Amino acid sequence: MALLEILKFPDPRLRIKAQPINEIDVELRRMVDDMYETMYASHGVGLAATQVNIHRQIFTMDVSETRDQGICVLNPEIIHQEGIQYEAEGCLSVGGGTYDKVERALKVRLKGMDLDGKIFELDAENLMAVCIQHEIDHLNGVLFIDHLSRLKQMRIRKKIEKLDRRE
Ligand code: NI
């Protein structure tokens, strides 16, 4: 396994739309192992392939406190959603200690494929529902900060540019 480099905003590669998975092979499984390792090492609750410069429809997630309930979803799709929640989010690809509240569906039904090629559905709410919506956004080239006001986005961009210059 290997740790992968996480792309950071404003890297334009975070805007690339991920392609669907048609075949599960050894290489794909190895990629997923690396994604898990990278997610756990970075203490993230979720990681989309886009964030590690792999433009395929894959994300890993683990919202458990014990960090041993990881799941991997291929070709994820939200087929039902209801309610509204408004919770603070952060992202491994958005530095500068950026956290802000984003409006999301409270509950979602996720449809996806597992690593055995089996199609499954999963009902999620609260944090897990946020995570699913956040990761699917990544696969579409969307970051959580895109949901904030223009003014907030401008402030975040300036703060991050300033930090990057200092490095
Ligand atoms: Ni993220």
Feature tags:
single chain; 167 residues; alpha+beta; Peptide Deformylase; globular; binds nickel (II) ion
Gross morphology: globular
Largest sheet composition: 5 strands, antiparallel
Structurally, the number of domains stands at 1
User: Secondary-structure element order, as H and E?
Assistant: HEEEEEEEHH
Strand content of the residues, in percent?
25-35%
What is the number of helices? 3
Question: What's the name of the CATH homologous superfamily?
Answer: Peptide deformylase
Secondary structure: elements and pairs:
Blueprint: H1 26-41, E1 46-48, E2 58-61, E3 71-82, E4 85-89, E5 100-104, E6 107-113, E7 119-125, H2 126-139, H3 150-166
Antiparallel strand pairs: 1-2, 2-3, 3-6, 4-5, 6-7
Residues 91-93, 134, 138 line the site of nickel (II) ion.
Task: Describe the protein's architecture and organization.
- Helices cover 28% and strands 26% of the residues.
- By secondary structure, it is of the alpha+beta class.
- It has a single domain (12-166), classed as Peptide Deformylase (Alpha-Beta Complex).
- The two termini are 29 Å apart.
- Bound molecules: nickel (II) ion.
- Nickel (II) ion is lined by residues 91-93, 134, 138.
- Nickel (II) ion binds next to helix 2.
